[in-house]
Amino acid sequence: MNLFTDIRALVLQAIEALQAEGALPEGLATAAVTVEPPRDASHGDMATNAAMVLAKPAGKKPRDIAEALAAKLAEDPRIALAEVAGPGFLNLRLDSSVWQALPAAVLKAGTDYGRSDMGQGLKVNVEYVSANPTGPMHVGHTRGAVFGDALASLLAYAGYDVTREYYINDGGAQVDVLARSVYLRYLEAHGRTVEFEAGTYPGEYLIEVGAKLKAQVGDKFVDQPESEWLEQVREFATDEMMGMIREDLALLGVKMDHFFSEKSLYGTGKIEAAIESLTEKGLIYRGVLEPPKGKKPEDWEPREQTLFKSTEHGDDVDRPIMKSDGSWTYFAPDIAYHYDKVSRGFDMLIDVFGADHGGYVKRMKAAVSALSDGRVPLDIKLIQLVKLFKNGEEFKMSKRAGTFVTLRDVVEEVGPDVTRFVMLTRKNDASLDFDFAKAVEQSRENPVFYVQYAHARVCSVLRKAVEAGIDVSDEALAGVDLSGMTHEAELSLARKVAEWPRIVEIAAKGHEPHKVAIWLNELASDLHGLWNRGHDEPELRFLQDDAAVSQSKIALARAVAVVISAGLGILGVTPAEEMR
């Protein structure tokens, strides 16, 4: 049930009726016709731009069309008032019976209320986290993990077939550095004194890994040249790090559907196959790039390279895919990885990257456009930095990690629910301040507490009702007569609940799960507002002397709780049944 979709359908029917009468010409495009909440709530429950959209192609004044539409819409019993405003906007007020019927619809659908078929089962690959397997996940990875996971859940809720994917960057030089760092810890486990040179990983998290390597191979690699142990230690260290990363993700409630190894692209013909695909399209050539901006001519050595003609697909410059020595650039395996995604039949790709990958967006979009002949869109979401604060000061260090705050540090400090919700209170491309004290503060200023408290308040009402012998099962509440729900505060809360299906589709379409968190805070505010008004206006209290009246009040509150539960489920947060 989506009231905005229903009323839009009613508007389209009115347009068709006017066309049948000859008041409007046939063949008008109506895709841009919208029905949404008015900017000013005092103007009505919904507003449509239909007259403004149709005026020019119809050759009529917007206000004339709006007045004709208003007359048609007023014939429907759901429309209490259709009022023309300004140059031709049409404001609608719905009959109270529409809002009175809403709680029952929510309770019958449960947490499926708001679920959409917008995605039509299209296959979407959401790649997120993809941290280098060289150490524990830090707070920046945490935000990317939460965002990607919530986005995947949001898209699934909106009707897409979603695959959550992690790309293991285990094919680059950083994994060799990891192997050398683990080898030093391995020597330490054998009682040797070692020194961590610049560029190695000195974090204490590798002490246990070195000890595990010793337990597995004994002194086999002690005093041996690197050529004897590098490959085996690299594989061992990568497996250990990925085990640690999986544990960290599990702490956060993140579970991937698929892990893809970069290393699997090398020596298997996959990179060559991807480049051959681009070659067949005439997009690979030998050439010399212009000097980079800011480089003086004497500092620039022009050399012939193998290039991808990415400018034909929206990039600023063509990109090298093979070095002059015949080895692949870092871009080549990324092309091959996305070629693999396209080959797996995904209809849409979403990559969640750190903010430092901003310069990578155009080239990767160009590659996917070329590989899929423009069929598969790629959306790259950049995750801005997180600043941590504790006791009013910026918090930067983690002894175990050596140089950064880990995901585990954050989750152990405030819990996974708080971590996830706070990480979603800002848009992904905006920086975020995470204050440990505020994150656990029980106040209106803490959004996760405020939303959880709203759900817990409803649960408290349900418990008290049960104690009073009132049947508050969803089945019973869905059958209650709500015709007595006429107070503006109650109707206003019902209007807010009605927005939920629309919010789901808007957030899913824009790939913006933060909009769910923000809207849930607004819904919680409305619930708390109604609760507080009950202190001064007893008729608004959820528990009344009459059991039937109590049920009618509780039905609305329970509908709010159902929607909060659905929204928190998308965000990966557990609804609270009581606050302590």
From TrEMBL:
Reactions listed under catalytic activity: tRNA(Arg) + L-arginine + ATP = L-arginyl-tRNA(Arg) + AMP + diphosphate
Short motif ('HIGH' region): ranges: 131-141
Gene Ontology MF term list: arginine-tRNA ligase activity
PROSITE patterns on file: AA_TRNA_LIGASE_I
Cellular localization per UniProt: Cytoplasm
Keywords: Aminoacyl-tRNA synthetase, ATP-binding, Cytoplasm, Ligase, Nucleotide-binding, Protein biosynthesis
HAMAP family: Arg_tRNA_synth
Listed name of the protein: Arginine--tRNA ligase
Organism expressing this protein natively: Salipiger mangrovisoli
